[in-house]
Amino acid sequence: MASAESPIPRERVELGRSLFFDPRLTIDGNMSCSSCHQPAFYGTDAHPKSIGVQQRPHPRNAPTVLNAGALNIIHWRGDRDSLEDQVAKAATSPITSGQPDEKAVIDRLSRVTGYAPLFAAAFPREPQPAIVQNIAQAISAYERTLLTPSLFDAYLSGNQEAMPPAARAGLAKFINTGCVACHNGVGVGGGMYQKFGVVEDYWKATGSDPIDKGRADVTKDPADLYVLSGLDPKTDLDTNDVRDLRLLLSKGGKLLLLDNGTVSPILFPEYVRGSLVATEGDISNMDVPESPVFDGLAPLDLRYFNNDKREVPTVCKVALKVRQDDHVVLLAKHVRIHGYLSGGMTERAQRMEKIQGETVVQVDDHDQGRALLSTLLLEKGTVDPVAGKLLANMIELLMH
Ligand code: HEC
Ligand code: HEC
């Protein structure tokens, strides 16, 4: 990376710019980086999915190359290590280049007079500078100059007036709504992986076909997160499913069970004894212990989850009855409030037992995988900032 002490040589950037716009290096000599990353479209091709050489369809769309120098995850699925790695692989990719190997690229390059002196100037200490690795160096050097400072940058550096009032109000909303939970850092985003469709099945909601398994195809990692919501044990869960889910956890998998009360006792009989269902006319209150699930939320934010209007179902219509166990951490409780607890110690304990249960429980499955069992109803996660924040916190807790 460039710095004040070691700036990128101008000659290297110039060479990179020429290569970025040069269509002659690809198989039919008619496609360059700039075909899909066009300046007129702010570094994209404005297509839902890109079309490569010989009309070959690309499975994904082209993100912008503007500010790509600030990225630490390259490609949607993070399957490139750096900008240099991205270019080196693009040079012989069947879709972006079509050239069979690096030699074919270099042969083509050597037939374009004019490049030899540019390579010599950009890599003065190298006797044979025209190699794919240097193409990658040069194009990446050019990409690192494609920075687009904005009014927001001026605002951040202390000039309050740089952004008009509407933009400042938007920024406040962006922060308060919780967008910043994921959109932060130099590029205001692009720095983390998130599962598409946390609240709803993404592929069902969008009707996209074929299904892109995303990063799971790159990592082949069973530790990837599974989110299951509103399962009905009668119709959605047979003994094979139970075995598969437990197997997933035993291999280090992560499981988030949402809106569940009846499934947990079946999946985790050793930890969950059963559940309590809220009844008509109950007033209930969620008790919030010190727990990372509630980070960034104030007790008042949780009013919505505390049902003081005797509505059924409440936002936690079920509470789990959990066994004491080293593998279990209780993250939130739910208490149904019915006046006083009277009587002697035993009587009161029995009464408590009937009105109190857990609404968020962490299960560390023999130090391998981790599951979060939550009975909170978070359907409003996309529109309600508190529900959204709770969901983001749960995912954070599972993944880190
Ligand atoms: C056929 C169209 C096409 C061509 C030609 C092409 N790209 Fe891309 N580019 C894409 C697509 C599509 C993606 C997303 C790929 C993915 O995520 O799987 C992408 C991703 C990238 C990214 C990652 C951006 C990010 O936000 O992660 C960079 C950087 C990039 N291309 C640079 C280049 C360079 C440099 C060249 C020329 C060597 C090039 N591209 C040629 C379509 C193209
Ligand atoms: C749970 C994490 C998360 C939250 C919360 C979130 N986003 Fe995103 N958003 C992402 C991810 C991941 C992407 C795709 C890649 C990237 O840019 O990081 C994305 C992409 C976007 C994009 C497209 C960017 C592009 O380059 O194409 C926009 C616009 C956006 N989000 C706006 C918002 C707004 C506005 C909010 C708040 C209402 C928000 N996001 C909340 C994770 C989140």
Task: Set down the secondary structure blueprint.
Blueprint (H helix, E strand, L loop, with lengths): L9 H12 L11 H4 L46 H8 L11 H9 L4 H8 L9 H12 L7 H6 L8 H12 L25 H5 L8 H5 L5 E5 L3 H4 L2 H12 L3 E5 L5 H4 L4 E6 L5 E5 L30 E5 L5 E10 L7 H11 E10 L3 E6 L10 H15 L1
Helix pairs in contact: 1-5, 1-6, 3-6
The site of one heme C (HEC) has 10 residues, from loops.
Describe the structure in your own words:
- With 400 residues, the protein is an alpha/beta fold.
- It has a 6-stranded mixed beta sheet, sandwiched between helices.
- It has 3 domains: 10-143, Cytochrome c-like domain (Cytochrome Bc1 Complex, Chain D, domain 2, Orthogonal Bundle); 152-181; 202-399, Rossmann fold (3-Layer(aba) Sandwich).
- A hairpin with a 3-residue loop joins β7 (356-365) and β8 (369-374).
- It is built from 15 helices and 8 strands.
- Helices cover 32% and strands 13% of the residues.
- The site of one heme C has 26 residues, from α2 and α3.
Keyword list:
400 residues, alpha/beta, Cytochrome Bc1 Complex, Chain D, domain 2, Rossmann fold, 3 domains, 6-stranded mixed β-sheet, two-stranded antiparallel ribbon, 8 strands, elongated, binds heme C
CATH H-tier superfamily of the largest domain: Class I glutamine amidotransferase (GATase) domain
Shape: elongated
Could you tell me the CATH topology label of the largest domain. Rossmann fold
Individual helix count? 15
Could you spell the SSE succession in H and E letters? HHHHHHHHHHEHHEHEEEEHEEH
| Helical percentage | 25-40%
- At CATH's second level, what is the architecture of the largest domain? 3-Layer(aba) Sandwich
Rg over CA atoms: 28 Å
Tell me the strand percentage band: 5-15%
Bound molecules: heme C
